[in-house]
Amino acid sequence: MYSALHQRIARGIPLIRHASNAAKDSTLAQNYCMNLVRQYDKENFLCTLLLKNPERRSALAIRAFNVEIARITGTVSDDKIGQMRLKFWEDTIDKLFKNDLKHVPEQPVIQELKEVIDSQKLTKRYFQRLISARLNANLRFVTTKQMEEYVENSVCSVLYLLLEAHGVRNVHADHAASHLGKAQGIVNLLRSIPYQERRNVVPVPQEVLMQHGVSQERVLRNRKEDKGVEEVIFQLAGLAHQHLEKARKLAGSVPKQAKPVLLPGVATGRYLERLRRANFHLTDSRLLQKDAMLPLVIYWNHFRGKF
């Protein structure tokens, strides 16, 4: 396992040499999680880099776990295989919280999660919610409420765990994380639409489509002159913006040590602004290009204590 791991890490961040095998294994696991998040969750990776250790190490472990389970549905063709892999993670989390390590495999993300769970009082329920969201997710929502419940479980739960890893247990921080997670989750769903044609899935609530008389097929075609599709995307983007603004209005009540956890709001806000300038056309070239200024803007907002 670790020979392959060496090859993956060799293309990324150099390893630090340690005397003991245990320390080497720990470094390998940390670098594995870092590279996993950097490859598959780039925007959140940029935010995580600005955290201080040991919180940064904990955050990378949590986000690496989320990447692992999020990638399952996109990498398997058989739903049963996907469910089996998610069940594996569900059982693993259960064993880690019970400190039953005899039957836990030596896998880098699991190794790092063990360290986090041992050192921080994390809530098991949030891990379970992340897994159940993937188990039950077909991204076919009837109502907006269903969509918000999905992003509450699949995105907000990560933020709650990161707050706990920072030692923050504060109702205002949780409230801000809930709104921010919903904004980020809705934006993630919007950004996924241009890539859903193969799965023939449109993660837009049926009630919104019916309100504007738009079919799922029209959303997938996403023609620039289709005003109905534009109105659908505008409505969802507006909902995401409302959640983001509610989170930002709570900033004054959020403890200082919690604000770095909320940095993903920077990327979410910038995407919504770019989407507005593109007239809510999801395949506009300006949206498909990388936001070159994002790292600098994230750093500046971190320096100012903003999100």
Automatic annotation (TrEMBL):
Name of the protein described by the UniProt record: 15-cis-phytoene synthase
Q: What InterPro entries does its record include?
A: Isoprenoid_synthase_dom_sf, Squ/phyt_synthse
- Quick check: keyword Endoplasmic reticulum in the entry? no
Instruction: List the catalysed reactions.
Output: 2 (2E,6E,10E)-geranylgeranyl diphosphate = 15-cis-phytoene + 2 diphosphate
EC numbers for this chain: 2.5.1.32
Which Gene3D superfamilies does the record associate with it? Farnesyl Diphosphate Synthase
Which keywords label this protein? Carotenoid biosynthesis
